[in-house]
From TrEMBL:
This is Uncharacterized protein. Keywords: Membrane, Transmembrane, Transmembrane helix. It comes from Vibrio kanaloae. The chain crosses the membrane at residues 20-40, 52-72, 118-136, 142-159, 194-216. The keyword Transmembrane applies.
Length: 297
């Protein structure tokens, strides 16, 4: 029994991570293209090596999406005592509505919440860090986070119930065709639930941006703060856009710009810079790699 229980846990985890990775690769490729669209620049002069780096970034992002989704779901499961209270409160509200309106609203239709397993609590801490960071970035996303945590817990509980119900039906004396129909129905339902669980955390305000920019920083494609030395004539273009450069130690043909953001570098033949203005606004310029030197702060 113990071995069978562990096999079921591993199989369910494998299904979740498989779906998360497949979706993550698609989301990863789309997210990188979306990042290029957001900054208003698509790399030119891309080599085969740059293309491989793009694939690597999409793969890394897919792993991060899988970790984010799984930790988020684990956090939802770890909060099962809170959801039990919510369900209990909803059931009392339905009972009160039935008494006042003489209606027969089905209390049994409320979702059932399963207890979290031991392995969920460890990964739930990572989900807590993700959720906490997003809530601190924008407090309005807190309600969205709570709703999605509850939804993840409900879906996971539903998957477990479907599996148990299917196992009971398969043990009954039924035909092979009926067993195949049961397996097909459960597989289809669970696949939809798993896909929803993977995608749901990505609708949290700020979550996609956090994941994409995090991967870009880790790959050194994006640098949030740097001092850049730009060579003429591009330094002249930069000053004409507003920022004022300072003398550079790289020579008279260079100008130094501090507190710059490097939005895109290392892929293709150009570097995308966001230069600081006095009124806290920024101006974006594109400079050939050979005409800029970057010194991260």
């Amino acid at each position: 029994m113990l071995m069978n229980d562990w096999n079921e846990k591993l199989e369910c985890l494998n299904k979740f991570l498989t779906v998360a990775f497949k979706v993550g690769v698609l989301v990863g490729g789309f997210a990188i293209c979306a990042y290029s669209w957001i900054i208003g620049y698509f790399p030119s002069g891309v080599t085969i090596g740059d293309g491989l780096l793009f694939i690597l970034l999409a793969t890394v992002l897919s792993v991060l999406v899988a970790l984010f989704s799984f930790s988020f779901t684990s956090l939802g499961l770890a909060l099962w005592p809170l959801w039990k209270l919510v369900i209990k409160l909803l059931s009392k509200i339905l009972i009160l509505i039935n008494r006042v309106t003489n209606k027969d609203l089905q209390i049994n239709s409320l979702p059932k919440i399963r207890k979290a397993r031991a392995e969920h609590y460890g990964i739930a801490f990572i989900g807590f860090l993700f959720a906490g960071f997003l809530a601190l970035q924008d407090w309005r996303s807190l309600m969205v986070v709570l709703v999605l945590l509850f939804s993840s817990s409900v879906m996971w509980s539903s998957i477990q119930e479907n599996e148990e119900e299917a196992n009971k039906q398969l043990k009954a004396d039924i035909s092979t065709e009926q067993k195949e129909a049961i397996l097909k129905r459960v597989k289809r339902g669970n696949s939809i639930s798993l896909l929803a669980m993977v995608l749901m955390p990505l609708v949290i305000p700020g979550a996609p941006t956090m994941l994409v920019t995090g991967v870009m920083r880790a790959a050194d494609v994006r640098v949030d703060s740097a001092t850049v030395h730009i060579k003429a004539p591009y330094s002249i273009y930069a000053e004409e856009s507003g920022p004022k450069g300072q003398p550079s130690n790289f020579g008279a043909s260079f100008l130094k710009f501090e507190n710059a953001q490097v939005l895109f570098k290392g892929i293709g033949s150009n570097t995308v810079l966001s230069l600081h203005l006095k009124d806290k606004d920024r101006v974006q310029i594109v400079v050939p790699n050979s005409s800029v030197h970057l010194l991260p702060n």
